């Protein structure tokens, strides 16, 4: 019972595998045609530019890396303009006089104001400046970042903002360079793909019109590969790689694999072919062959041949080519005793398509007549690539496909690089945004740190001045106290030994600790853990934390982002 169930499952899986062939299942070269279809589907695809996700408007959409960078860079320039000096803003506000970056750079009066800024960036500055003020101002932006910003704050933030903007410029320039290289490689690869499919004559005629993403020019009979007034066997039997012969391009070889030298039963690949296409003798013309190709190509694109949603890539193209060449020599029909393998086995490994094996007759791909597979050996609806495979040349169109696959690998690597550059630019954009948003915190920290603190006497100081050993003016002075004649009592000197407050770069407690070290001789200094002997003097070695800590941490965080 278990064995019977396994058999049923195996039968179902076998039938399912046949279902993918649909109309191609009954044809002798259906599987080889299906493998060729996979390659054809990829060779006809366009090669789009690198896409980056953009979710700025909730709905996620794909945009090119160049478009994404343009948007990021535009916002970075606008953010940087919020802290720009008045001289730059004045030029940007007078676009009637200064039209663009080229005009600014050519003007002796103002070009020095934009030193280090390229013309392209100045153009972006002109486009972004109106969004900061006047009727065209972006209210949401100006409210978020508190524009206009006062002069003192602008001057304080300008250096950091400019450094970040320069980093963004470098990223933009790098993306442009990599993008241009990738665009050129995409176009070159598309041409290689179409050359592999249609041949050299097609590429020569349409080279200037072929782009990476545009519609490919239609193949016409004038560029078609088939040699008119010649037989099917002369054009297809033995691959030479020459124009008009098998091995030159995929389209040529698909026709060779799908017809015999007759005017009937020419449906060796798909029943969507016109079986009555006339290839008798030397009757077939370029028009005949082009008609056949269009039929089999359309069936590839529209039929269920097991290659749905196939996207071109280096790996996919290489895999499809390997699958096709792995079938060389496998589709043979036994017409008689196999006889001596030395007589008929040597050429099998170079044959693609169905062919006869009979006795000691050498295998070949002659397909003249209505029923080439029902006769003797040496017949077959196939192509013999043996001569090409014996040389270093190989099969021309397959070589071109593999060259395109190698380029696609490089294009993918460029794509990864471009996306990384965009991510880095987004990080810089966030850094400038944060710099502007926390500027009030920076201002408050700086202001508080610069204020002189009012010293509050410690309990120790108050006790010392309250009960000095010598209760005279001189005695008060000896213990660091003053005599208050109005209140007739001793009091601590203002700011004396106050360890809780300080002014400027340190506080009183820290200063007292340092004074304690500076008075020591060398031997005593070296014995004190908080002191060190340096340059013939005793100095404090402890880490002093002052009121500038909050400001220095915030400032340092932005400086660190620049490197």
Give an overview of the whole structure.
By secondary structure, the protein is mainly α. Among the domains are: 329-384, no CATH class; 459-560, no CATH class. Helix content is 50%, strand content 8%. The chain has a three-stranded mixed sheet. A two-stranded antiparallel sheet has the order 1-2. A two-stranded antiparallel ribbon has the order 6-7. β6 and β7 form a beta hairpin. α2 packs antiparallel against α11. The longest helix is centred in the N-terminal third of the chain and has 48 residues, at 151-198. The radius of gyration is 42 Å and the shape is elongated.
Report, as a whole number of angstroms, the end-to-end distance: 73 Å
By oligomeric state, this entry counts as: single chain
Let me know the average pLDDT.
80
Structural class, please?
mainly alpha
Tell me the number of strands.
11
- Spatial order of the strands forming the largest sheet: 3-4-5
Classify the beta-strand content into a percent band. Answer: 5-15%
Give a short account of the largest sheet: 3 strands, mixed
Q: Please give the radius of gyration in angstroms.
A: 42 Å
Low-confidence stretches: 1-26, 55-60, 448-454, 496-514, 542-563
Helix content: 40-55%
SSE topology:
Elements: H1 2-19, H2 30-43, E1 51-54, E2 61-64, H3 65-81, H4 86-92, H5 101-106, H6 119-128, H7 139-145, H8 151-198, H9 200-206, H10 232-236, H11 250-258, H12 286-302, H13 314-325, E3 332-334, H14 341-344, E4 351-357, E5 380-384, H15 386-389, H16 396-437, H17 439-450, H18 459-466, H19 473-478, E6 481-484, E7 489-492, E8 502-503, E9 506-507, H20 508-518, H21 522-527, E10 531-534, E11 537-540, H22 549-560
Parallel strand pairs: 3-4
Antiparallel strand pairs: 1-2, 4-5, 6-7, 8-9, 10-11
Main location: membrane
Organism: Trypanosoma brucei
Protein name: Variant surface glycoprotein 1125.106
